[in-house]
């Protein structure tokens, strides 16, 4: 026999408050007194109560849910972003529904349809390229939409992200100004941001009159792939003196390959990663990487959404966030300073 669900009235009777008070607590805990918050929370845990969102969704009331579409569950960069989103959403009484697109515009279209069918109050997107029908549906939904990770020049609604193209341009230009001439770019997966980094790299090389060496592969990134790219590239280009990698997985793999090749880092060759992941802090030598503020992007995007939903939004809708280069030993001090200056000049 199916067990009867715990109701708001059950909780109210146990705590000694009205059903409306419990409802206010579930909508936003800060709507009730601190002492009452504690009592309600304890009874909810005791009774194992799970709020039923269906009635709110079927009516046109707020679902108190924010949909998030991420490109990959295996890519660690999205963990920081999600933590930033949840840190703000939870404080405001919002739940977060996360769906996966696999870097596919077609899959994104399907997941957008699903989120809209759940009547989420807002959607956060982590890709910059969308199908025509996805854009149309998102605009017709008339809910806050924030595109994050990469800065979007003409967003659907709002954007919080890094200027990927100019960041890559600045890194490459910094290496060139520091004296490096034979610089390679390693790109994997070939998603939009990877290709934007490649274009920024190529622009800097072209302006300096240097021959570019871009190696792209559609496979998912990992350490062994970075090592393989480095070994093959150095075999054909023994004058290689710097490598700019699309992410830290590839950079760490390239670093390991250089050690196998008995190359001194950064004397013989310099390596720059991208994303500033923790793995780069324990390599030897320590990896220099472009650190992107993913937690802050997630938190800021969610704050913008909630302020817009509550008619309190007064800030900018298009926010370009700065990046930093992490300190390490895969660059000379001079190269590090040149890249830092170029980032401030071209990518801030």
UniProtKB/TrEMBL annotation:
State the source organism's domain of life: Bacteria
The record ties this protein, via InterPro entries, to: Cro/C1-type_HTH, HTH_LacI, Lambda_DNA-bd_dom_sf, Peripla_BP/Lac1_sug-bd_dom, Peripla_BP_I
Q: Which residues form the HTH lacI-type domain?
A: 6-60
According to the UniProt entry, where is the signal peptide?
none
Which SMART domains does its entry note? HTH_LACI
Query: Recorded GO terms, molecular function?
Result: DNA-binding transcription factor activity; transcription cis-regulatory region binding
Q: Where is the HTH cro/C1-type domain?
A: 7-50
Q: Which UniProt keywords apply?
A: DNA-binding, Transcription, Transcription regulation
Matching entries from PANTHER family are given as:
HTH-TYPE TRANSCRIPTIONAL REGULATOR GNTR, LACI-RELATED TRANSCRIPTIONAL REPRESSOR
Name of the featured protein? Sugar-binding domain protein
Species, as recorded? Succinatimonas hippei (strain DSM 22608 / JCM 16073 / KCTC 15190 / YIT 12066)
């Amino acid at each position: 026999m199916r067990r009867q669900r715990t109701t708001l009235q059950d909780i109210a009777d146990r705590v000694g408050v009205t059903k409306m008070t419990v409802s206010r607590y579930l909508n936003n805990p800060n709507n009730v007194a601190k002492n009452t918050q504690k009592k309600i929370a304890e009874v909810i845990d005791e009774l194992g109560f799970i709020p039923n969102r269906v009635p709110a969704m079927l009516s046109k009331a707020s679902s108190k849910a924010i949909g998030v579409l991420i490109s990959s569950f295996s890519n660690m960069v999205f963990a920081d972003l999600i933590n930033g989103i949840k840190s703000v959403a939870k404080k405001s009484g919002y739940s977060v529904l996360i769906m996966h697109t696999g870097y596919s515009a077609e899959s994104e279209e399907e997941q957008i349809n699903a989120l809209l069918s759940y009547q989420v109050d807002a959607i956060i997107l982590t890709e910059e390229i969308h199908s025509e029908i996805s854009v149309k549906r998102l605009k017709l939904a008339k809910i806050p939409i924030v595109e994050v990770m990469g800065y979007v020049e003409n967003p659907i609604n709002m954007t919080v992200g890094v200027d990927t193209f100019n960041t890559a341009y600045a890194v490459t230009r910094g290496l060139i100004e520091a004296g490096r001439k034979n610089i390679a770019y390693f790109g994997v997966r070939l998603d939009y941001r990877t290709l934007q980094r490649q274009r920024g790299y190529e622009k800097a090389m072209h302006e300096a009159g240097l021959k570019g060496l871009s190696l792209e592969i559609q496979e998912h990134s990992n350490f062994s792939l970075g090592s393989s790219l480095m070994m093959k590239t150095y075999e054909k280009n023994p004058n290689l003196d710097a490598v700019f990698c699309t992410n830290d997985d590839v950079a760490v793999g390239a670093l390991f390959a250089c050690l196998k090749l008995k190359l001194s880092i950064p004397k013989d060759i310099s390596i720059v990663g991208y994303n500033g992941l923790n793995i780069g802090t324990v390599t030897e030598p320590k990896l220099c990487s472009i650190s992107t503020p993913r937690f802050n992007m997630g938190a800021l995007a969610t704050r913008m959404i909630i302020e817009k939903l509550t008619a309190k939004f007064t800030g900018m809708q298009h926010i370009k966030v700065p990046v930093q280069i992490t300190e390490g030993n895969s660059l000379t001090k001079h190269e590090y300073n040149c890249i830092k200056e170029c980032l401030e000049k071209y990518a801030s």
